[in-house]
Amino acid sequence: GTVVSGQSGPPRQTATVRGLVTLQCGDAALSSGKGSVKWSRERRGAAMEDILTSVKGRNTKHIEDRQRRFGSQADGALSILQVRSSDSGRYLCNGIPAVDLVVTPEGTRGEDQERGSSDGERGGGEERTTALITAQPATTGAKQRKGKKE
User: Fold this and answer.
1) Shortest CA distance to 102 belongs to which of 80, 87, 81?
2) Would you put residue 76 in left (φ > 0), alpha (ψ -120 to 50) or beta?
3) Residue 85 has what DSSP assignment?
4) CB distance 92 to 77 below 8 Å
5) Least buried of 3, 77, 102, 136, by fewest C-beta within 10 Å?
């Protein structure tokens, strides 16, 4: 994602829905942890929640993470797999604001289709659209090109 440094607060970083993002813990926050890193986040309208603590490479999760989307790296960075729009918010490393994460939709085409399907009834949280997959036979074009070469 893109990191943009703001005048006040931590840098802003963008991530795409269903993508991967790595959030860096600042040097001051790393040194204050003395070998341990604790990631937490603030979201609008919600209390601060602890995500995970990493001590010498061993992670302790503080949130329910059945899909194992959250993990820490050797340098203390927090990685988030299969990013969701609900992951937007301010992330703190050892209590120090590290990143303001802004999650953007996959793309306009997928966004429009998802918006259309979620306006009506929601099918158990399933957000995948199969309309994007189209199969086209590849053999017809290849045969025509061979004939024209000679």
Assistant:
1) 87
2) left
3) G
4) no
5) 136
Which amino acid is residue 84, in one-letter code?
R
SS3 content of the chain, % helix, strand, coil (to 5): 20, 30, 45
| Beta strand pairing call for 58-61 and 70-72 | unpaired
pLDDT digits (tens, 9 = 90+) for 84-142: 999 999 999 999 999 999 999 987 433 333 333 333 333 343 333 333 333 444 444 44
Q: Scan for tokens 């919600």, then name that residue.
A: 46
- The 10s digit of each residue's pLDDT in 6-60 is 457 899 999 999 999 999 998 889 888 888 999 999 988 788 999 999 998 899 9
| Tokens describing residue 119 | 């306006």
Global pTM value: 0.66
